[in-house]
Inverse folding.
């Protein structure tokens, strides 16, 4: 698979390194950025071409796929152009900043025969896979609730560092849209179809941005399970993210991307009358029994999944459709916070 990387900033550099590490299955052909020196820096590092024009790159026969690493509000236009040019596409999170844009990518994907994938690298973490498998197997019984917590810190200097950061048009939101999306995406992947949210958001510890630095929300899922979402970039000095799922036969906690707690009652186990306050932790044995992860960069496994998906003609783990579902929850959270009422996903649905 011969790749172009579009957008040679912080994450574009990671994509380039990820592609290089997957040789010979993947090859980086050209680095593209609106700013020539940025394209040139990555191109020189890897000994490949540099370009400032996506159109020029899409006309090349030696490019099979494009990874999109531009500011979030530019993702859909580029993705549609790539798919319409008959190339495969990998889109950085978020899919884009609003649901009209998500719809345009879904339409382009449907009319093309190419593969489209959205980055959500933590779905490939060992801990995430173990919990998802347990949920799919019904190991936690009736799933009752879950939480996605992200108490992070980003300084004012971070928001001042790029002209698109913290803007409605290009960042599309703040702590949730840019950072908390990873943790929220896991909760939605674990608990299934979201139905309704109620939320508050605030801009409490930063200035000169037009988006939230703190958000809290409740989510109701189609199964009946209830969820809590917390995302902030105003929690100094920044703590670890946490995802919890709970059912009437088991629970799991992922802390800092590691399986901190896991318990699933066995078939013959008697369910105790009272809880065990964190006892019975089976996390170590669950992790030991799972296939180990071999990762060069944070994105390695997801890129491998993309290559496998194209090779075997199957969808990747993170499809445009499921990324759009997570984006819909974030949009519903913003709508609810603004309107001061619960908002159904259907009202906004893609
Ligand atoms: N998966 C992750 O963990 C992760 C981490 C960081 C960023 N991201 C996502 O990656 C995207 C980029 O973030 P970043 O931190 O790398 O930003 P960045 O500002 O460092 O890089 C963006 C690059 O895009 C270029 N660019 C802007 N407009 C362009 C255009 N029209 N054509 C070509 N190039 C253009 C800029 O010159 C810049 O080099 C965002 O959507 C962000 O949410 C994902």
């Amino acid at each position: 698979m011969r790749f172009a990387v579009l957008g040679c900033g912080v994450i574009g550099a990671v994509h380039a390194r990820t592609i290089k590490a997957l040789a010979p299955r993947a090859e980086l052909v050209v680095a593209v950025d609106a700013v020539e020196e940025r394209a040139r820096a990555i191109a020189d590092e890897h000994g490949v071409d540099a370009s400032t024009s996506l159109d020029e790159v899409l006309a090349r026969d030696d490019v099979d796929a494009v990874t999109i690493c531009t500011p979030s509000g530019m993702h859909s236009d580029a993705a549609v152009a790539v798919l319409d040019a008959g190339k495969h596409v990998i889109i950085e999170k978020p899919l884009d900043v609003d649901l009209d844009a998500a719809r345009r990518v879904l339409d382009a994907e449907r009319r093309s025969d190419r593969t489209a994938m959205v980055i959500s690298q933590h779905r490939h973490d060992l801990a995430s896979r173990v919990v998802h498998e347990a949920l799919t197997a019904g190991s936690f019984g009736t799933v009752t609730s879950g939480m996605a917590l992200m108490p992070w810190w980003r300084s004012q200097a971070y928001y001042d560092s790029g002209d698109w950061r913290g803007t409605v048009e290009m960042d599309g939101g703040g702590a949730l849209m840019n950072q908390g999306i990873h943790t929220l995406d896991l909760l939605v992947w674990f608990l299934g179809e979201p139905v309704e949210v109620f939320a508050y958001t605030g801009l409490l510890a930063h200035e000169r941005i037009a988006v939230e630095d703190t958000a809290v929300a409740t989510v109701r899922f189609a199964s009946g399970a209830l969820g809590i979402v917390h995302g902030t970039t105003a929690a100094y000095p920044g703590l670890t993210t946490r995802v919890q799922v709970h059912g009437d036969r088991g629970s799991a906690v992922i802390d800092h991307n590691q399986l901190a707690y896991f318990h699933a009652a066995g078939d013959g186990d008697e369910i105790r009358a009272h809880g065990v306050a964190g006892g019975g932790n089976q996390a170590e044995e669950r992790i030991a029994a799972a296939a180990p992860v071999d990762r060069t960069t944070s994105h390695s496994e997801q890129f491998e999944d993309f290559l496998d998906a194209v090779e075997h003609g199957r969808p990747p783990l993170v499809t445009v459709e499921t990324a759009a579902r997570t984006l819909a929850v974030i949009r519903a959270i913003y709508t609810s916070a603004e309107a001061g009422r619960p908002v159904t996903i259907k009202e906004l649905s893609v």
Remarks:
- The first helix runs from residue 10 to 21.
